[in-house]
Specification:
The chain is mainly alpha-helical. The chain has a domain of 55 residues. It is built from 4 helices and no strands. Helix 2 runs parallel beside helix 4. The longest helix has 16 residues. It is globular, with a radius of gyration of 13 Å. The N and C termini lie far apart (36 Å).
Amino acid sequence: MERFKFENCKSVATPMLKKTAEDDSTKSEKAGVDFSYRQAFGALMFLMTGTRPNLAYSVGYLSRVLDKPTAEDVITVKRVFIYLSGTVSKGIV
């Protein structure tokens, strides 16, 4: 299986896109991809508490689906990591 490489991604300006009630009601089935969602979530939580408080909303939103993440949730987690790869120089020192 090929690993996702964040250094090859174009940076994004925000960690999450705006969600609407319509988006939440059309959730798809459980993600069929090999991705350790809990481990990625834990890494984001560690960063949020230590140096990146701007991730608080994203981490709170992503914590709602720890048991059954969908493919859309996995994409959202990856977007947060892409945001972080573009803002490495920012954060509390």
